[in-house]
Amino acid sequence: MNENLFTSFITPTMMGLPVVVLIIMFPSILFPSPSRLINNRLVSLQQWLVQLTSKQMLAIHNHKGQTWALMLMSLILFIGSTNLLGLLPHSFTPTTQLSMNLGMAIPLWAGTVVTGFRHKTKASLAHFLPQGTPIPLIPMLVIIETISLFIQPVALAVRLTANITAGHLLMHLIGGATLALTNINASVALITFIILILLTVLEFAVALIQAYVFTLLVSLYLHDNT
Amino acid sequence: MASPVPVKEKKLMDVKLGELPGWILMRDFTPRGIAGAFQRGYYRYYNKYVNVKKGSVAGISMVLAAYVLFNYCRCYKELKHERLRKYH
């Protein structure tokens, strides 16, 4: 059972070919680009969703921050669609791999920090010291603020990885338990099945929420720095 | 066997069975040709099922079903061991 549980998380290669590249590129097929004034239903639905999300997400930024609109919207679309596609049976979710999440989190966080240092150097450095701290505490607080700054990208990546991986693992385990219990005690199996249904609903929510949280935090770091 | 129209320009449904190997070999297998084939296939599916006035959920759900099937084929080797058998 140990080996079975984690085989769904290994990077897929079919006969040595990295199929994982195809799997990462697959969600892009599901988002056709709008070519006319009035598009087909799929494209209109996606357009409406993107406009709703972008208006809400970019409302807090000034002009400089709003240049990141394309980046933030493609980020939330990518993470949301990848997480949702991972809920299909037997599929591989790229966001369960820490390598990929670190690859997304570190450049984006570094971009916001470097933008802050380049354009508002004094204000960016001033973030290291909250207002109104008593003077004896200053050295310790600067150290703590530095640590909390450098932990931001790691937290972004690990949060996404852990949430999605834990959800998938739980579903595998409870599904296996339901199957094993059908022969032993049907009513307990029914209860376990209901738990599985609730968990699946939760996973749908988590898939979307994690995308939102990731993007929201990047946008927050951006807001601090522009 | 020789037909008035050259084999290369005929569509697949018009090619006779005996001419099939020749027809296949005459297709464009350069990277540009293969990319063109993928593009033609994509737009054929898209214009038939998605880019219509009243597109339904069938358009994307066929794509998702194919994706599930592809992933099933990919991990068949591990799934083989989970069949219901008396002796594994």
Automatic annotation (TrEMBL), chain A:
Protein name: ATP synthase subunit a
Source species: Panthera leo (Lion)
Principal localisation: mitochondrion
Keyword hit for tRNA processing: no
Keyword Transmembrane helix assigned: yes
Alphabetized PANTHER family for the sequence: ATP SYNTHASE SUBUNIT A
Cell location: Mitochondrion inner membrane
InterPro entries in the cross-refs: ATP_synth_F0_asu, ATP_synth_F0_asu_AS, ATP_synth_F0_asu_bact/mt, F0_ATP_A_sf
Automatic annotation (TrEMBL), chain B:
The UniProt record lists the keyword Methyltransferase: no
BP-aspect Gene Ontology terms: proton motive force-driven mitochondrial ATP synthesis
MF terms (GO), sorted A to Z: proton-transporting ATP synthase activity, rotational mechanism
Any Pfam family hit: WRW
Keyword annotations from UniProtKB, A to Z: Acetylation, ATP synthesis, CF(0), Hydrogen ion transport, Ion transport, Membrane, Mitochondrion, Mitochondrion inner membrane, Phosphoprotein, Transmembrane, Transmembrane helix, Transport
Topology term for the membrane: Single-pass membrane protein
Gene Ontology cellular component terms for the protein in this record: mitochondrial inner membrane; proton-transporting ATP synthase complex
Subcellular location: Mitochondrion inner membrane
Organism, scientific name: Lynx pardinus (Iberian lynx)
Assembly information from the UniProt record: Component of the ATP synthase complex composed at least of ATP5F1A/subunit alpha, ATP5F1B/subunit beta, ATP5MC1/subunit c (homooctomer), MT-ATP6/subunit a, MT-ATP8/subunit 8, ATP5ME/subunit e, ATP5MF/subunit f, ATP5MG/subunit g, ATP5MK/subunit k, ATP5MJ/subunit j, ATP5F1C/subunit gamma, ATP5F1D/subunit delta, ATP5F1E/subunit epsilon, ATP5PF/subunit F6, ATP5PB/subunit b, ATP5PD/subunit d, ATP5PO/subunit OSCP.
Annotated family: Belongs to the ATPase F chain family.
Primary location class: mitochondrion
Name this polypeptide is given: ATP synthase F(0) complex subunit f, mitochondrial
Claim: Transmembrane helix is one of the keywords in the record: yes
Protein role: Subunit f, of the mitochondrial membrane ATP synthase complex (F(1)F(0) ATP synthase or Complex V) that produces ATP from ADP in the presence of a proton gradient across the membrane which is generated by electron transport complexes of the respiratory chain. ATP synthase complex consist of a soluble F(1) head domain - the catalytic core - and a membrane F(1) domain - the membrane proton channel. These two domains are linked by a central stalk rotating inside the F(1) region and a stationary peripheral stalk.
Transmembrane segments: 55-73
